[in-house]
Amino acid sequence: MEPLTWTGALGTYLNPLFALAALGLILAVIGYILLSTYENAKYTFTSSDGTMAAGGTNSDALSRFILPLGIVTLVLALIYPLAGIVLPFGAAGIIGELGMRFLPVWIALAVTFVLSITYKRKLGLYGKLFDSPIGMVGFAIVMFWVFTAIFVAMDMVITHDPLGQVSGMKNKLPGTPLRGAEEGDYSHYLLGGDNLARDVFSRVVQGSQVVLVIAPAATLFAFMVGITLGLPAGYFGGKLDTIISFLANLVLAFPVILLFFLLVTPEIRAAGIPIPGTNYIWTVPTILASILFLFPLVFLVVLFDSRFFTQPSKRNLYVGLTVLIGGYLYLGLAWDADPLGLISIDGGVLIVFVSVVFVNSPTVFRIVRGLVLDIKTRDYVAAGQTRGEGPWYIMLWEILPNARGPLIVDFCLRIGYTTILLGTLGFFGLGLSSESPDWGTTINAGRRLLSVYPHPAIVPAIALMSLVLGLNLLADGLREESLKD
After folding, report:
1. Which of 93, 179, 309, 431 would bridge 352 by S-S if both were Cys, CB 3.0 to 4.6 A apart?
2. Cα 347 to Cα 268: distance, rounded to the nearest angstrom
C-alpha cells in the first residue's frame, strides 16, 4: 500500500493554480501596504478657479485586485479538503482524506449557519453575531471543534484508538500506511505516528473532547461563583464587600501560573486533613470541590426562589428539583459519594477543574462587582425598589440581565485563557494523566524529537492555537455587537 501525499493526484493540476493565486494575493497585499504608506496623494485641478480634488492613487487601483484574488485563493484552498468527499480514496491526498473524515462536522456547520442566518433577527445577541464578519469566523472555528468533539464521541471522525500502539508505526510521517492492518481498520496514519506509535490525528481530535469539556464547564462554574459573590458585594457594599474583596485580592496577588502549578502538584493533591476515627483524608481537591461546587447550587436556588416568591407552588417545585438533582450531582462530583455509582470524576481532572474555578472566580467577582456598582444607580433599579421587589430579585432579574454583554464577552475570552492554561499544565505533565490525549500532553510528548519529527507536536499546537484564536475572534464579534445595543 502506497503512502499518501498531501494533495495526491489532485495536486498535479491544482497546486500550480493555487500557488499562482496565493502569490498574486501576497504581492497585491504587500504592494497595497507599501504604496498606501509611502505614496503621496495625487491631486488634479478640476475647475478654472484652481480648486483641487483628490485623484485616484496607484494603491487604490491595486486594492481592486485584492478581493478577487482572495476569493480565488479561498475557493482553490477549499477544493483540497472537499475533493476527498467525491474522489476515490487517496486521489485528493492527506488533505482530502482529512476533509472526508470531517464530513459530519462540515454538514453540522453548514446547517448551523443556514439556520442561524435565516432566523438571526429572532435570536437576540446570538443572531446579531452573524452581522459581524469577525464574529462569524470565530464562531465557525469554535463550532468546528465543538462538533468535532461531539462526533468523536459518536465514533464518526476518529480513525484509530488514541491510546493504541501499532508495531512499526513509531514516529512515522503523515500518510504512512498502517502496518499489519486488518479488515475494518483505517488503512493509514493520516497525520503520522508519535514516539509511542500512536495515531497523531486520533489523539488530536480526541483531545478536543478533553479541552471542550473541562474549559467551558470550569469557566461556567467560576462565573457562578463570581456572580454569586459579586452581586451582593456590589449591591449591598459595606463590610460584606470589604471582606469578599479582600479575599479576592488575596487570591489575585499570586501569579496565575504559579498558583496553578501549586494547586496541581502531586504533593498538594495528596495533602489534606485526616478525619478522626477513619482512614479517610479530606484532601485539598475535595476541600476545594466541596466549597466551590456549592455555589452553583446556591445560585440556582436563590434564582428560582427570588423569581417565583409570589408563586409558592412553582417555587417549591423548582427549588425542590434543584436541591434534589443538584445535591445528587454535588455528592458525586465533590465527594465521590454517589449512592448509585453513576456520577464520578477522576482525581486528576477534579484538581484541574477546581483549580480553574478557584483561580478564575476572583477575577469574575471583580468584573461583576464593578458592573453592579454602575448598574444599581440606573432608574429601572430604583423603579424595582419602589415596587417593593426584594434585593435578590433586583440583583438576579434586573441587574444581571443588563450586565450580560460584558459577561458573555469575558466568558468567551476566559475559556480561551483556560484552554491555554490546560495546555500549559499538560505540557509540564501536571494535572491530567500522562496518557491523556489532551493537546498540552500531546505537545509535550512530541517536543522531544521536534527537530527530527515535527508533526507530533505541531499538529496539536495548531489545534490549540486555532481554538484560542476562534474564541478571541468570537469575543471580539460579541463585543462589537453588544456595544450597538
Report:
1. 431
2. 12
